[in-house]
């Protein structure tokens, strides 16, 4: 606004007997201020707000002010957001009679102006005197969750109440249409937004945002645990990628003493196992006989010791076969040290912090299976040439010297004279920062770091199909395991990857797995440095790998290590001197994808650019994407754990993992770059939206 106009507005106020009434006269007789943006009415209002501070004598009180407040409330119902605060301030609405304000908001609400009633309530801080469920329900039904979050934002008791309401809507048999009948004017009501899966995602996001006890939402938590249970059965009996012990740990911690989940567990067991196994679990869970299906109760009384002996024999045979098929630690078991006290950690410190040292670093945490919050690191593995140290972080964090451990970790990462090897190190460091706030800037201070995930993208690797011919049924290797197989000859045994790393004591298999994960990095690095050319790498390997402090990590995307996409699984066939896909650009109209249901925003964005997009519905199983991809020749776009499952069900290069934490635009750019899609002006909006 020009200075000249400002001066003219001020002269106008000075010439009025009652500037406050004058502003209302002007607003009531015009409508330019009702639109979005900065109207003349907006500039005059904000200038009056400033002018009043210089001329406090014009402020009104008593009956005169009440009349002005009654007039301004009628205007507020039609106001754009930018006019609300200035008008509330000018007419001192925070001092107005609270019952009068509540009555006005109630009038708006009963007219069906739910959004306007909520915004005014937030601005005037009326929430403690209102019925939160009544105010928020129509907003939720109209998909105005951001406004609902603002409404309860400063009131913890309302946050808890909101979460309890949303959880009640997730109860089996609940029908949302029973509620919608009570509300008028729900023009934007979207029933598809109210399936249990969408509500469940909203509840978990709010639990995290408001830091509320998840026990307030038993329905949602039970449903999430049931999905975890189904996933564990899929891993054990379909993929066959979890050991019995590992699987048992997770099933027990998921089900606990919850009888509802125990009932589902028995039903799943009956469909996947023999009656002896079902009876054994019934015994372990101490289930009452009336809960057990016909036949299981009888078996429970006839459990034979002989069967357990046979199980143990089978397990021994399995261990022997594993040694032939998988990478084995080349150091004695006595050289793996499990550290739980500060005194033990000091010995590790002295050996690790030596100039010229090369160390392999890895971390483990309990899989979240979609639960709230970032993972907290349970085990930190540091491998040297002759020994491996496993740091029990939960135990070390309980000790008096706990503030010294972050200092050790910072010294290790910031010392350029020590070469640190990792795989997906940015994901590890972000989890470490979530575990210890003192370590939040470790990634910025890191020097002398080699992330073998970055190197993996440069290495020439056989396709999974070629490298697995004649190996019988087993999931194709990916990520670090595939790199280990190519460089060292045998893959890593990843059956313990999804272990419960918080449970103590750790099983022997977990200890060996954790040590192998860190130690193999040393062997890979040594072999790549000795003969880089045979792996398609430049001869000056060391110089190109060890990152200098001024260079940003090449892997910008922060990856949870249990979600690390296999670079070789995503690349196109042929030698990979460059980590890009085909050299010839592709037009969007020739590119067909199927988007998993957590990437619907990305799907809509790609469709705007002319890409042929199919999207899974919220209630669809992730595996439907593989069916569509195979039938219609589409590329799957997915994220996180579903990637691990889907990429093994389609041809190489036909499944791509997108960073779920980024916005749709950044995700789309990632896809366009990876597949070399060239978008022209003619492509934009060329498809029906």
From TrEMBL:
Listed SUPFAM superfamilies: Ribonuclease H-like (SSF53098)
Listed Pfam families: DNA_pol_A_exo1, Mut7-C
Domain 3'-5' exonuclease: 336-533
UniProt-annotated stretches for the region Disordered: 548-584
Domain of life where this protein originates: Eukaryota
Transmembrane spans: none
Keyword Hydrolase included in the entry's annotation: yes
GO biological process, one term: nucleobase-containing compound metabolic process
Keywords from the UniProt entry: Exonuclease, Hydrolase, Nuclease
Name of this chain's protein: MUT7 Exonuclease
Species name: Fregetta grallaria (White-bellied storm-petrel)
Gene that this polypeptide is encoded by: Exd3
């Amino acid at each position: 606004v020009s200075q000249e106009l400002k001066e003219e507005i001020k002269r106008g106020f000075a010439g009025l007997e009652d500037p406050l009434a004058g502003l209302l006269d002007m607003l009531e007789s015009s409508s330019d201020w009702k639109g979005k943006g900065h109207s003349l009415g907006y500039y005059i209002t904000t200038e009056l707000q400033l002018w009043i501070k210089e001329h406090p004598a014009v402020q009104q009180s008593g009956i005169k002010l009440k009349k002005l407040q009654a007039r301004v409330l009628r205007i507020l119902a039609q106001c754009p957001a930018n006019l609300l605060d200035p008008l509330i301030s000018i007419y001192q609405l925070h001092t107005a009679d609270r019952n009068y304000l509540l009555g006005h908001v109630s009038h708006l609400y009963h007219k069906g102006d739910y959004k306007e009633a909520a915004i005014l309530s937030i601005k005037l801080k009326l929430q403690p005197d209102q019925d939160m469920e009544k105010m928020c329900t129509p907003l939720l039904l109209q998909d105005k969750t951001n406004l609902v979050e603002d409404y309860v934002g400063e009131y913890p008791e309302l946050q808890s109440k909101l979460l309890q309401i949303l959880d009640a809507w997730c109860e089996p048999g609940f029908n949302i249409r029973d509620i919608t009948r009570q509300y008028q004017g729900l023009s934007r009501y979207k029933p598809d937004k109210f399936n249990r899966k969408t509500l469940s995602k909203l509840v978990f996001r709010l639990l995290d945002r408001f830091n509320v006890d998840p026990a307030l939402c038993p329905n949602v938590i039970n449903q999430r645990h049931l999905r975890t249970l189904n996933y564990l059965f899929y891993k054990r009996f379909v993929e066959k990628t979890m050991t019995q012990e590992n699987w048992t740990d997770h099933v027990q911690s998921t089900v606990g003493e919850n009888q509802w989940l125990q009932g589902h567990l028995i039903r799943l067991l009956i469909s996947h196992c023999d009656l002896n196994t079902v009876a054994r679990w019934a015994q372990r869970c101490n289930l009452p006989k009336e809960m057990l299906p016909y036949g299981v109760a009888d078996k429970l009384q006839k459990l034979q010791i002989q069967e357990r002996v046979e199980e143990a024999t089978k397990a021994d045979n399995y261990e022997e076969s594993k040694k032939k098929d998988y990478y084995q630690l080349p150091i004695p078991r006595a050289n793996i040290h499990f550290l739980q006290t500060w005194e033990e950690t000091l010995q590790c410190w002295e050996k690790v912090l030596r100039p010229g040292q090369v160390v392999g670093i890895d971390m483990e945490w309990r899989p979240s299976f979609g639960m709230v919050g970032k993972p907290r690191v349970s085990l930190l593995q540091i491998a040297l040439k002759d020994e491996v140290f496993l740091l029990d972080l939960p135990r070390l964090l309980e000790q008096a010297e706990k503030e010294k451990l972050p200092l050790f970790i910072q010294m290790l990462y910031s010392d350029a004279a020590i070469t640190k090897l990792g795989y997906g190190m940015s994901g590890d460091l972000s989890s470490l920062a979530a575990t210890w706030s003192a370590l939040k800037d470790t990634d910025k201070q890191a020097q002398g770091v080699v992330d073998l995930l970055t190197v993996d993208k440069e290495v020439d690797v056989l396709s999974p199909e070629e490298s697995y011919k004649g190996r019988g049924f087993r999931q194709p290797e990916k990520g670090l395991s595939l790199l280990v197989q190519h460089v060292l000859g045998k893959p890593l045994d990843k059956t313990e990857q999804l272990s419960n790393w918080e449970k103590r004591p750790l099983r022997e298999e977990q200890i060996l797995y954790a040590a192998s994960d860190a130690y193999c990095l040393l062997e890979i690095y040594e072999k790549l440095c000795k003969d880089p050319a045979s792996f398609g790498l430049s001869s000056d390997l060391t110089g190109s790998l060890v990152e200098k402090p001024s260079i940003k990590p090449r892997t910008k995307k922060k990856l949870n290590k249990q979600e690390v996409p296999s670079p070789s699984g995503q690349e196109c066939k042929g030698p990979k001197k460059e980590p890009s896909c085909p050299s010839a650009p592709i037009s969007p109209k020739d590119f067909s994808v199927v988007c998993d249901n957590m990437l619907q925003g990305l799907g809509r964005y790609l469709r705007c650019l002319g890409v042929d997009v199919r999207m899974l519905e919220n209630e669809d199983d992730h595996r439907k994407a593989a069916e569509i991809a195979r039938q219609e020749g589409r590329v799957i776009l997915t994220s996180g754990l579903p990637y691990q499952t889907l990429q093994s069900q389609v041809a190489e290069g036909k499944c791509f993992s997108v960073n779920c934490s980024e916005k749709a635009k950044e995700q789309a750019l990632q896809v366009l770059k990876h597949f070399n899609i060239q978008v022209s002006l003619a492509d934009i909006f060329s498809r029906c939206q």
